[in-house]
Amino acid sequence: QVQLVESGGGLVQAGGSLRLSCAASGRTVSSYAMGWFRQAPGKEREFVTAIARGGGNTDYADSVKGRFTISRDYAKNTVYLQMNNLLPEDTAVYYCAANPTPNFGVTYTRAAIYDYWGQGTQVTVSS
Fold it and tell me: Which of 26, 33, 50, 90 has the fewest other C-beta atoms within 10 Å?
C-alpha cells in the first residue's frame, strides 16, 4: 500500500500563492488516481481537485477553477497542488488521497472512493 505525506501549507495573505506537495512512498503514484480534499472547521470534507491515474484528465471544484492546478511528477513520486489567488474561504486542512483504480482516464470526486489518505496540511489565508 501507499503512504502519503502532505507538506507546503502555511499562512498566506489573500491573493497569495502556495504549492502543496503530496509525497508518496511504498508504491508509485502511477498506480493511483489522486485527489485533493479540504476540510474547514465545522464543515464536511470537500472535493478540491483530482487527477486521473494516467495523468491526462483532471477535475476541479467550481470554487477553485482557474486558481488551483493539480499535477503529478512520476520521477519524484509526488502530486502537487498549486494554489494561486488564495481567498480567506480557502482556509482549511488539505488532504491528498489515492485510489488504486485500474482505470487510467477517470477522475474521482467522492472522498469515499479513495482508500489512502495523508495526515493533512493546514492552509490559512488571511484577509
Answer: 26
* Dihedral, CA of residue 65, residue 39, residue 125 and residue 51, to nearest 10: -30
pLDDT in the model for residue 89? 97
Q: H or E stretch including 97?
A: strand 92-99
Q: Within a 10 A sphere around the Cβ of 22, how many other Cβ atoms?
A: 27
Considering Cα of 63, then 69, then 74, then 76, what sign does the dihedral take?
Answer: negative
Cβ-Cβ contacts under 8 Å for 108 (sequence gap 6 or more):
33, 35, 50, 99, 101, 114
* pLDDT higher than 90, residue 56: no
Contact of 34 with 79, CB cutoff 8 Å: yes
Distance CA 70, CA 80 (A): 6
Query: pLDDT tens, 70-119?
Result: 999 999 999 999 999 999 999 999 999 999 999 999 999 999 999 999 99
